[in-house]
Amino acid sequence: MKPRVVIVDDEERMAGVVAAALGRAGYECEQCASGDAALAALEERPADVVVTDWKMPGMDGLTLLRSLRARWPATPVVLLTAYGSVPSAVAAMREGAFDFVTKPFDNDELRALVARALDLTRLERENRYLRQEVASRYAPDATVAESEASRKLLDLVRRVAPSRATVLIQGESGTGKELVARLLHYWSDRVGHPFVAVNCKAFAEGVLESELFGHEKGAFTGAVAARPGCFERASGGTLFLDEIGEIGADFQAKLLRVLQDGEVLPVGGTRPRRVDVRVVTASNRSLRDEVSAGRFRDDLYYRLNVIPIQLAPLRERRDDILPLARHFLARHAGESGRRLALAPEAEDALVAHAWPGNVRELENALERAVVLAHGERITPEDLLLEHRAASADGAPEGTLQDALDRAAAARISSALEVAKGNRAEAARALGVDRTTLYRLMKRLGLSPLIVSGGGTAGPG
């Protein structure tokens, strides 16, 4: 859609000149002969920008500006004024006008000014959306925490967030370490500044130093320009260092010096730079064990572990499973435009599953189920939960769902064998439709291979 501009001027000829200049630039223009007419037009249909004359009979430009700021504060207002009224126009800017242009004006100047005003409108709209997104995702009442362990965790995060102290988050992969780091940021007074996340495992040690500390031009081959590192890019905000246990001994010493001195030395640089950053780190292994094994410096460990936060795996906080599942289902079903609910048997399967991949695995299962579900209810077959085989000594292991999966695999294999590999006949014998049988076979890893004599092989 074309950006809409409302032009307010009691002189029809001048309003037409403005409309012609902006119309050639691709704007949709509506002319109004008075402030009252403009307000009525805007009530009927909002505008992206208002261009108004300063001196008009009745409601002048300043009075119109005040009315616009009261009703549509996000709509930028550009003033048209004679040269002698410039001081008044400047005063109007103090009351919220975007800018002014003097008559006679240059068409290119006017178009550039309106374009800048539209950029402001777009940025304010994006900022408003981002603030709403942050509020909805990171507000305390928007965070799923039903289990006692999760409620205690959130209480700790709220108390720790305002502090400047470094935080070490430990827990298995998929337990939500980055989410906790973001909560620490968004619940602190640093929320208006950057949150920068770095996965230390993703970089070789030499590259990681440049990524975090920055580099000067010519510091190494390919360094064609100076570049600030993540410490500087996170200035005033939070720097999250994930997989901190993966960094080597040499870099551990350099990171310790930065934490102690509050200064970074870019690669190839000679002068350190002050940084104001709150550092949050995370590891999916025990750093205490890494210290004991001699792989991690004890002085760096104590510097990072000022406030320790330990995340429990999902299997130890089962009260969170269904609330989290419903939360993820609502998000992914909403994004796909579907209305879905969990069938009772699907909820039973979710609660019974071991969740070795923790919350990340749970979200993946629900996202997958939204895609696979045929009706309005998600079944266990739609979840495609992985099952475990028996242990090496033949004894059954795993959850109740694992046992049910093994029993289902044996029953389906038997039906396929009796039906000599005919899946339609096997489905009738099992009391399910062929589509359901195919989905079950895929989830359980069954492959109906025809063998001599017309039989079938068991689990693939």
Report on this model:
With 460 residues, the protein is an alpha/beta fold. It has 4 domains: 4-130, 3-Layer(aba) Sandwich (Rossmann fold); 140-312, Rossmann fold (3-Layer(aba) Sandwich); 315-383, Helicase, Ruva Protein, domain 3 (Orthogonal Bundle), CATH 1.10.8; 400-454. The protein has helices at residues 12-23, 35-44, 61-71, 86-94, 107-138, 148-160, 177-186, 205-213, 230-233, 249-261, 287-292, 298-304, 321-336, 344-352, 358-372, 380-383, 400-418, 423-430, 434-444, and strands at residues 4-8, 28-32, 49-53, 77-82, 99-103, 167-170, 195-199, 214-215, 227-228, 238-242, 263-264, 273-274, 278-283, 307-310, 341-342, 377-378. It has a 5-stranded parallel beta sheet with strand order 2-1-3-4-5, sandwiched between helices. The protein is flat, with a radius of gyration of 32 Å. Mean pLDDT is 85; it is low at 388-396 and 449-460.
